[in-house]
Amino acid sequence: MKIEEEIKQQKFSSAHQKAVINLLYTASWLQSKQQDFFKPYGITAQQFNILRILKGQHPKSISATEIKLRMLDKNSDVSRLLDRLLAKNLISKKTCPNDKRATDVNITEPGLELLRALENFQNELDGVLRLGQADAAQLSELLDKCRG
């Protein structure tokens, strides 16, 4: 459905304004789809992001500070998210031996198992955009260009 129909607005001051509104609307729509996807697994998109970061580091640990730098949502409260993942036994945390103020974080076997289970449904989540490979690649290039 076109953005004009979605938000019931026919006029935009420019193509740029329309593109920005469309991008913001689509980002919100995609976040909603992600929430629906992750809900049965008891995690959020931000928690999934952390688990993916930790899987990429596995078996090495990573600091909470480094996780925050790698997060897709830079405004995430990483400490709170880590505490929730710890409570679910999806990660482990320990004080860094070199810096008592820092925390080393690792993904646990249950965390890896959850990611393996989610991999089976990744195509379902990726397919929500309804784009072919070429269109998805072009969209990604355009978004990279937007960020300059």
Overall geometry:
elongated
Q: What Rg do the Cα atoms give?
A: 19 Å
Terminal CA distance reads 28 Å
Nearest-integer average pLDDT: 91
Write the layout of secondary structure elements.
Blueprint: H1 3-7, H2 15-38, H3 45-57, E1 62-63, H4 64-70, H5 78-87, E2 91-95, E3 103-107, H6 109-119, H7 122-126, H8 133-147
Antiparallel strand pairs: 1-3, 2-3
Question: Notable features of this structure?
Answer:
61% helix; 8% strand; 148 residues; mainly alpha; elongated; Arc Repressor Mutant, subunit A
Explain this structure.
61% of the residues lie in helices and 8% in strands. By secondary structure, the chain is mostly helical. It has a single domain (13-147), classed as Arc Repressor Mutant, subunit A (Orthogonal Bundle), CATH 1.10.10. The protein has a three-stranded antiparallel beta sheet. The longest helix is centred in the N-terminal third of the chain and has 24 residues, at 15-38. The two termini are 28 Å apart.
Question: In a few lines, what is going on in this structure?
Answer:
The chain has about 150 residues and is mainly alpha-helical.
